[in-house]
Amino acid sequence: MSKDLQKRVIFGGIALAIFIPFLLKGGVPFQLFTGLLAMIATAELIKMHGLLPNSVEGMLAMLGSLVLTLPLENYVPFLPTDGNYTAYAIVVFCLLGSTVLNINHYSYAEVAFPIASSFYVGIGFHHLILARMDSLEKVLFALFIVWATDIGAYLIGSQIGRRKLMPKVSPNKTVEGSLGGIVSAVVVAMIFLLVNKTVTAGYSFVVMLFLVALFSIAAQFGDLVESAIKRRFGVKDSGKVIPGHGGILDRFDSLIFVFPIMHFFGLF
Question: Which catalytic reaction applies to this protein (predicted)?
Answer without folding.
Answer: a 1,2-diacyl-sn-glycero-3-phosphate + CTP + H(+) = a CDP-1,2-diacyl-sn-glycerol + diphosphate
